[in-house]
Structure formats: structure tokens, C-alpha cells
């Protein structure tokens, strides 16, 4: 499996993975718009997984992370997050944030293992009314 940068031309393929991996998947046109932004940092492994983040003003945001069901439990999420982490560091990001569904224990476990810590809760954040947990990672401390 080959890790590569994702750009707007990859949006349909990434959206197909997103449809397999996400609770509320993004459409290809919305992905293409996001992937075209200068602040967007994105990586993917064709037919397996993707990560989309951003970097601006010293802060990073993890926007999307997904691994196709058939490719799970192989360390791909960790690989994708490491690529994003390297991008953040190259852009001088000091802290990064993400929202994760309060009912997604698997993702929460992954993030905790990688140094993400609770920073808040957003009540009813998702369209189905599920809360989001806001997580933060200080990149200066875990250098």
C-alpha cells in the first residue's frame, strides 16, 4: 500500500473511501473544495484510507480520518496520522484539535494512544444529535 498526498483530483476516490468509513460521509465536491485550499494537508492510501487536516496560525485541525473496513487493524490510521503530524510540524503547528463522536470508542482509544487529550464537549454536534468530544494535542510537548 502506497501513501501519497491527496489533492482535488483525488476527491472522487477519497469520497468513495469516506462513504465506506464514515458515519456521515462528505460528498466528492465538498472534498475537492477542501483539498484545493492552501491550508489543507491531506494524505491517502488508495483503496484503504485517508486523512485530511489543516494548518493555520500555528494550529492544526484533524478534519477527516477514515480507513476502509477491509483495511482496518493494520496500523493505517497511525501511518496516516504520522504523515499529517509531519506536515503540521513543518508548518510550525504548536497544537492540534479534532472532534470525535462521543459514541466512537475505537477512535477515542486510537487518539488517546497517540497523545490526544480531552479539551471539551460539544453537545448535539452531529446531525443525529450525538455529542462530539473535542480533543487537543500539544505538538511542542511530544516533539
Please list the strands of the largest sheet in the order they lie side by side.
1-2-3-4-5-7-6
Major sheet characteristics: 7 strands, mixed
Q: Per CATH, what is the topology? A: Aminopeptidase
What is the ordering of alpha helices and beta strands? EHHEEEHEHEE
Uncertain runs with pLDDT below 50, 5 residues or more?
Answer: none
Helix content: 25-40%
In DSSP terms (H or I, runs of 4 or more residues), the helix count works out at 4
- Kindly, what is the distance between the CA atoms of the first and last residues, rounded to a whole number of angstroms? 27 Å
* CATH architecture label name: 3-Layer(aba) Sandwich
Question: Approximately how much beta-strand content do the residues carry?
Answer: 25-35%
CATH class, anyone? Alpha Beta
Overall form: globular
Q: Tell me the structural class.
A: alpha+beta
Total separate domains: 1
What is the CA-based Rg, rounded?
Answer: 14 Å
Q: Oligomeric form of this entry? A: single chain
What's the gist of this structure?
With 143 residues, the protein is an alpha+beta fold. The protein is built from four helices and seven strands. The protein has one domain (4-138): Gcn5-related N-acetyltransferase (GNAT) (Aminopeptidase).
Molecular structure report:
Strands 1-2-3-4-5-7-6 form a seven-stranded mixed sheet. Strand 4 (59-67), helix 3 (76-90) and strand 5 form a beta-alpha-beta unit. It is globular and about 35 Å long. The chain is 30% helix and 31% strand. It has four helices and seven strands.
